[in-house]
UniProtKB/TrEMBL annotation:
Enzyme class: hydrolase
UniProt keyword Ion transport, yes or no: no
Superkingdom to which the source organism belongs: Bacteria
Naturally occurring in which organism (per UniProt): Campylobacter fetus
Full protein name: phosphoglycolate phosphatase
GO molecular function: phosphoglycolate phosphatase activity
Known EC number: 3.1.3.18
Keywords: Hydrolase
Family: Belongs to the HAD-like hydrolase superfamily. CbbY/CbbZ/Gph/YieH family.
């Protein structure tokens, strides 16, 4: 059997950047004089690309790029200081790096993702980071996963995607790899059970599950 490959989502899987994300959205809606969405509405969309999120929150298509630019301006000022690792994330990454080739597949841009990983002290473990800017079709399309596998010179055999949303699982299914959902993020756990191959509480337990499956 080929060496294991483990791909991680970021927000809600390894990191919590909710405060910075919410600040960015509220800054954009405030600047353009739109009624503020509530935090629950925003959080329910985290994991989707920004343009999709703003459209879903009622922003006209003609203004979406302006909202995205304003969001990014605010996000840049706070994302490092307002982002933290989720419980078990560092242990998960350390364990994963010992048993597998590992990477990140996210709808953040790779630039911000790499900066965050380095800032949080876990960047050295990852062999590839694929962001929204690296592909034409972001998750839930399988393209980001397929690109990460290509970057690692790996096939879809003995490969796993660990993430907190149904988009991660859909992308995994499209790429024909195993999906493991984690309930520490933004998706309702009932949705994860409907679509994921496995569901665990956190990334550490997810990696432990991979270790069990890959050694069967």
């Amino acid at each position: 059997m080929p060496k294991t490959t483990i791909l991680f989502d970021l927000d809600g899987t390894l990191i919590d950047s909710t405060s910075s994300i919410l600040n960015g959205f509220h800054s954009a809606f405030s600047k353009f004089g739109f009624a503020q969405p509530n935090d629950e509405q925003i959080c329910s969309l985290i994991g989707h690309p920004l343009d999709y999120m703003f459209c879903s929150l009622g922003v006209p298509n003609s203004l979406v790029l302006n909202f995205v630019d304003t969001y990014k301006e605010a996000y840049r000022k706070t994302y490092l200081e307002q982002t933290k690792l989720l419980d078990g994330a560092k242990e998960a990454v350390e364990l994963a790096s010992n048993i597998a080739d590992i990477g990140v597949v996210t709808t953040k841009t790779s630039k911000y993702s790499i900066c965050l990983l380095e800032h949080l002290g876990i960047g050295k473990y990852f062999q590839t980071v694929v962001g929204k800017d690296d592909v034409i079709n972001p998750k839930p399309h399988p393209e980001p996963i397929l690109k990460a596998l290509s970057n690692l010179n790996k096939s879809n055999q003995n490969a796993y995607m660990i993430g907190d949303t149904s988009m991660d699982a859909m992308a995994a299914k499209g790429a024909n790899i195993i999906s493991i959902g984690v309930s520490c993020g933004y998706e309702k756990i009932d949705n994860l059970f409907k679509i994921c191959d496995w569901v665990e509480k956190n990334p550490k337990e997810a990696v432990e599950r991979v270790n069990i499956i890959s050694n069967l």
